[in-house]
Amino acid sequence: MNFPVLKGAGYVLVNTPDMIIQNGSTCQTERVVNPDSEFLKEVGKHIRSFDEVVKYLPNQVYIGNIAPQELENYEMPFTNHSYEEGKADGKMGKIVKQDVFIALLQMSDAFDLVKLSEEFVNEIKPVIEEEYPILEPYFGHLKGSDISNAQELFDTHMAEALYHDGKVCGYIKAAHDIDVNLSAHTMFENLVVKASGVLAAVELVTKNDINRDDIDYVIECSEEACGDVNQRGGGNFAKSIAEVVGLQNATGSDTRGFCAAPIHSLIEASALVKSGVYKNVMIVAGGSTAKLGMNAKDHVKKGFPVLEDVVGGFAILISENDGVHPVLRTDIVGRHTVKTGSSPQAVISSLVSQSLEENGLKITDVDKFSVEMQNPDITKPAGAGNVPEANYKMIAALAVKQGDLDRKELANFIKEKGLVGWAPTQGHIPSGIPYAGHAIKDLTEGDYNRVMFVGKGSLFLGRMTNLFDGVSIVMERNDGKMEDESSVSSESEKDQIKKVIAESMRKLAENLLAE
Fold it and tell me: Are the C-beta atoms of residues 65 and 95 closer than 8 Å to each other?
């Protein structure tokens, strides 16, 4: 049986120091409810420089310069270490500066909503032209304007300010006078999703030498929604990203499922390729400004830098089996159903063990589990603990309960089968996919044979249901055995023979009736 393969991955982290304070939900809320708070006075002192962001170990893992397994060699918190060899350009992605990203916001704008000062554009345009030749068709979108009326627009909530180095360098206008779905704030968030998705897709195609014309479908799986008063989340981020990146032969759609959406999308893309509907499906997700500095109060209080200082994005490509890249086992898919329940054991069993058992496998047959790969540097000071480790403990406990693992091997299981978290807390971004690029290497050049991606989602946040959600899928080393053309031809010939026989029988029946 031919399974689809994971052919490549691309990642982006956009360092947005000004957006933390101006656009992150924590700082925005604080300005409304407690404008004179000590937190607002102190938070600016805890913002890292771009160089510090680049040399931060988890960020280097995210863009592929360090293998995630290497994090085990460093004591936490990772803020105590500076990876001096760190570079902004990685093997699988890139760390992008805020001014470059602001320029990309305007280049991604299809309705002339983004206005940038002439001074800002004159400084950044040569950088864009040098770093992103792939986006040359959109260089013309980058143009300066007179923004002297900015304050009036801010005061009337008809524009959202764009800051760089503490100064207003432009703004994003509302797309409608009264429709809250097209407000300046919403358009700002949605353009951030689109632009960061564009950057991630660019990293995918450039770092993996992918022919853009070969991509025929795109699935976008972030947590924002675009639409207007009559269809609040109608979409379509996927096709808008494909347009800017130059995927001329692609169509696409958006998939939503909170933090589980990336793995839902991975399963959907794999099914589309496996069925033959599409040959190459790109999954892409932009990041969230609302989550910038989300836990900043706790970080500031405990003397940490504000670690949620990047907008994350990723893009991966699912393609037909090439005999080389790891295969996605569409027959080993775990899912949390309506009847599963919310107990930890029921959740982990539905996502991890049931699909394995159905295929004659045990939990211990999986070399690595990629779960919610949140960076513990971010979550522990905020009281959320070490999220990946908590997941691995539950998986290990289930393995013990099922008799697959001796209780005294619990600690070793977590180390051998788990990974130290490194992804920014951008909601959907940590959900399994940060390991995808590394997994390609581990399953081709390394000694792993099988990994599992697990995504979980908190549906109660949408106030539509209290149900939990989650899905999983297994990816394996490619054994190089592909369905050969002769067997396909043979099956085709069999179909033709069946049709001939059926037609002959029909004619025979007609003749008998005529007699």
Answer: no
Unique residue bearing structure tokens 């760190």: 86
Residue with tokens 């270490």, as numbered in its chain = 81
Residue 90: count other Cβ atoms within 10 Å of its Cβ.
25
> CA-CA distance, 77 to 380, in Å (whole number)?
9
The partner residues of 283 in beta bridges, in order of sequence, read: 219, 316
d(CA 63, CA 402): 37
Query: Which residues does 348 contact at the CB level (< 8 Å), separation at least 6?
Result: 394, 395, 398
Residues with Cβ within 8 Å of 327's Cβ and at least 6 positions away in sequence, in order, are 3, 4, 5, 321, 475, 476, 477, 478
What is the Cα–Cα distance from 474 to 433, expressed in whole angstroms? Answer: 12
Integer angstrom CA distances of residue 368 from 58, 407, 409, 412: 18, 19, 16, 13
- CA distances 481 to 2, 414, 450, Å, are 8, 32, 16
Beta strands in 353-499 (DSSP E): 368-370, 450-458, 468-476
Looking at residue 342, its pLDDT comes to 85
**Helix, strand, coil fractions of the chain, as percent rounded to 5:** 45, 20, 35
d(CA 33, CA 291): 18
Q: pTM of this prediction?
A: 0.93
Band of the pLDDT at 485, cuts 50, 70, 90?
Answer: very low
Q: What are phi and psi of 208, to 5 degrees?
A: -115, 10
The alpha carbon of 410 is separated from its chain's Cα centroid by a whole number of angstroms, namely 30
453 phi and psi angles, rounded to 5 deg? -100, 130
pLDDT above 90 as % of the chain: 91
- The answer, yes or no, to whether residue 490 has pLDDT greater than 60, is no
Give the 3-state secondary structure of residue 18.
helix
Report residue 418 CA to chain centroid gap: 20
Comparing CA positions, the residue from 112, 173, 183 lying closest to residue 141 is 112
Residue 376 contacts residue 386 (beta carbons within 8 Å)? yes
Residue 512: pLDDT band with limits 50, 70, 90: low
**Domains of the chain (ranges, CATH numbers):** 5-476 (3.40.47)
Q: How far apart are CA 215 and CA 332, in angstroms?
A: 25
The DSSP bridge pattern shows strands 114-117 and 144-145 to be parallel
Angle at 432 between CA 223 and CA 453, to 5 degrees: 125
Q: How far apart are CA 308 and CA 471, in angstroms?
A: 26
Q: Which residue has the tokens 């195609």?
A: 205
Q: Are strands 93-96 and 114-117 parallel, antiparallel or unpaired?
A: unpaired
Q: CA 415: distance to chain centroid?
A: 25
On whether the CB atoms of residues 27 and 40 are closer than 8 A, the answer is yes
The whole-chain average pLDDT of the chain stands at 94
Q: Which pairing describes strands 217-220 and 167-173: parallel, antiparallel, or unpaired?
A: unpaired
CA gap 189, 237 in Å, rounded:
12
